[in-house]
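mind reviewing this stuff:

——
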Amino acid sequence: MATPPASPPPPPADTSASPSTLKRTCKATRLRSSATRLPGAERLVVNVDPATGKADGPHKKKLRTYLGIFARDKVDATYNTWKEVPTAQKDLIWKDIQAEFEILEAFDSRTKKKILQIFGERWRQFKSDLTRKWILAADKDGADDIACEKYGISKDKWAQFCQTRRDPLWKDVWKKA
């Protein structure tokens, strides 16, 4: 009896397709499955320094990855600053983080503040990447559709975000930074 192959055979090559349609690109959500735990699995234990917000232990990298993925998924890019994000939404974010990770210093309010501060930094970095890669890159045809699909942003929210980034007042602020 023959042993089944370890992986499925590759699909037949389509010679009529152009090379650009064959190219596979990673979507922004490709790490989502590695950043969430399976139902029923124990929460990962992470030690966080309340003064600096730095994680320690074997799962510190997973926490940082989770914060980045979660930031781009849960907070609208249309907010101008992290301070504009409602406190109720920040509290829900904190509860979701605690549902995934067992943070031993979670009882300390400074730890919550520091982790949410890091979360806000990840969110700002995401907005900066969107601006640099998609909005300021004027030579990309169909960039709006690609960005909406890749990052799961609705066309209305994307148009609103693009409008703020293309505003001359925002460009003055961006050049100063």
